[in-house]
Amino acid sequence: MVVAELAGRARPLVSQAGPRVMVAGLGNYGLRGTRHSVGMAVVDRLAQQLAVAEGWQVDRRCCADVALATSRGLELVLLKPRRLMNLNGLSVTSAAEIYNLRPEDIYLVHDDLDKALGKVAIKLGGSARGHNGVRSCISALHSNEMTRLRVGIGRPEGEVTVSSYVLAPFSAGEQERLEQVLPQAATSLLENILRRRAPTGEPGDRG
After folding, report:
1. What is the crossing angle of helices 132-141 and 88-98, to 10°?
2. In 22-159, which residue ranges form alpha helices assigned H by DSSP?
3. Active-site option among 36, 110, 131, 142
4. 36 counts as catalytic
5. Phi, psi (5° rounding) for residue 84?
6. Which residue, 62, 133, 138, 172, shows the most beta carbons closer than 10 Å to its own?
């Protein structure tokens, strides 16, 4: 897939009016397909569901891939930081400034060691719970009011360290399970966003 590039002082690609949220998939951009970057995989699947999978663009202003969609009158800014996990917050904060978003308008999608693979939970605000990407976002935004979609990856067994486990690709069996988890996670997240944030009375959707 060819990703276009935005640079300089280009205007945001969304309108200035109407409700808007951002969904940020946290991860290590150069380590796609690993457990720690499962948040990016969910956002990729969300882009497919919103029919904007071919709309990703590199935005150098926030050092991230950005795709834009509209559903039921709500504008969605999909974001994948092009930084290491512990610096993801810099991209999220820059994008929030560009698109005029408050912390409560932001959804963070990330892996969760304390949940088994296949378990997904939505959490409203709170601490980082040891997650470096979430900690980076809280620090950069000076707020913990962001909603999180926590995607279970399970904990390592035996003598495998947490760091090597999260930075490794999913096993073949896990990958098979993941193909079921990703669409379910994306659907759950979108339903939650639309239920909480979409304006009422909007007749249709568009990508």
Report:
1. 40
2. 38-49, 88-98, 132-141
3. 36
4. yes
5. -65, 155
6. 133
- Per the structure block, which two tokens stand in for 188? 């759950």
The encoded tokens of residue 130 equal 């040891």
Strands 57-59 vs 64-71: parallel, antiparallel or unpaired? antiparallel
List Cα–Cα distances, 68 to 43, 50, 61, 170, 202, in angstroms: 12, 9, 16, 28, 18
Tokens matching residue 207: 């990508």
pLDDT tens-digit series, residues 42-54: 999 999 999 999 9
Look at residue 205 in the predicted model and tell me its pLDDT.
46
* Residue 15 buriedness (CB in 10 A; 0-12 / 13-18 / 19+): exposed
Could you list the beta-strand ranges (E) of the chain. 4-6, 20-25, 57-59, 64-71, 74-81, 106-112, 120-124, 147-152
Structure tokens at 13: 């690609």
Sheet holding 74-81, edge to edge: 4-6, 57-59, 64-71, 74-81, 20-25, 106-112, 147-152, 120-124
pLDDT in tens, 83-124: 999 999 999 999 999 999 999 999 999 999 999 998 999 999
